[in-house]
Amino acid sequence: MTTDDDRPAAPFGRALCAMVTPFPESGALDLDGARRLAERLVSAGCDGLVLSGTTGESPTTTDAEKAALVTAVREAVGDRAALVAGVGTADTRHTVELALAAEKAGADGLLVVAPYYSRPPQDALEAHFREVADASGLPVMLYDIPGRTGTRIEPDTLVRLAGHPRIVAVKDCAYDLLGTQKVLSRTGLAYYAGCDEQILALYAVGAAGYVSTVANIAPELFRAVLDAFDAGDTGRAALLQRRAIPLVEAMMAADLPGTVTAKTLLGALGLPAGPVRAPLRPADRETTAGLLAAYEELAAHSGQSQA
Known about the structure:
By secondary structure, this protein is α/β, with parallel strands linked by helices.
């Protein structure tokens, strides 16, 4: 299904935040903080939230915590935003179990990453995704991030998987613009930019929207980019994208994961976040100062604090 401008439908909205998972200093799960953060993000323009993704520290949260997080955020935002639950693991059986739990907890969709470490060949990868998609009634967003998993979901594999009725979208962190356009031209899969620096570029060639880590800090930022582009003001869209780059670079191109930088800034701004779980470590003072400087530069352009 496509819209009038031949852009694939956006099954989970356009402006999605890869939400952090708040913890108190004790390291437990902060469900009240998750509710407050989710409410802030949705009120500021996010029409979808990805929970328990990479930014949500899924490798170090338990199955029970993942389900509780979906339930709590659903209570907070109701039907104002789509909730996509990260359920991908290195084990097909475990991924299916998480998918069923997410469905029961109230998720609207599933984010399923390529199995990591074991590096399955493409036929095994395809079988994995099909088994997970067959297991529940929820639509699936495949997560292509070979830099973390060690395995690319090849364009031809994506084209074949597009024939599954519940595989509807891709979170694209493959840094392969040609491959992305190949899949877009041959399928109805909704592409979501998973790398903040590529949001406008992918949207311009037909992506449905984005899944952004930077949106934890500045939820209005990239929504404004898409709105300007949709209004035909491509110059303003490009300007807004460029203005975002210092913050994107500070948060996503440093030697620290986006989880760490997002939580550092959220904490500095007095917003729910808390510490990261080991093996991740908090940002040092120098990094924190650089992050705040990049944030303040963006806030100065907008004329007001994004918090």
